[in-house]
Write a structure and sequence with these properties.
CATH class: Alpha Beta
Strand content: 5-15%
CATH architecture: Alpha-Beta Complex
Order of helices and strands: EEEHHHHEHH
Shape: elongated
Oligomer: single chain
Distance between the termini: 84 Å
Length: 159
Amino acid sequence: MRGRERPRRREREIVVQHIGAETLLYDEQSHRAYCLNASAAAVWRAADGERTMEGISAAASAELGVELSEELVRLALAQLRREGLMEALDENVAPAAISRRAALGRLGVAGAMLLPAVSAIVAPTAAQAYSGCVDCSNSAAQAARARRQQQLNQAAPRK
């Protein structure tokens, strides 16, 4: 049944931001942020629920400009599923069991740059991020400038 698998990225309650070659995803449910490298991001974008594994591999390869094997696509999808960034699997489809170590062994050092990477961090909620200071940026910057000036004055040779 694997040939009929059509993975779908999770789009509900996900905020997407592209920064350089990386893609940042923020999960509004779990308040976690994820950083996807170029290959993981290409797989995530290609997983639209319409494409098969071969289609995802072809679309991601075209986006990256380098061949991305189905094995690497499966590795990326496994990481994305583990972090809750993919829709639930059809019960008739078994997820692929592949490790980064096995993929790296097959690809070699040159292929290591293609290994998909999904890094997760816990992002603070709005209440946790609020510091209580209304105009922190100006007063903090003024204090830093004053400290810097004081240090320069103390370090300057006296005449």
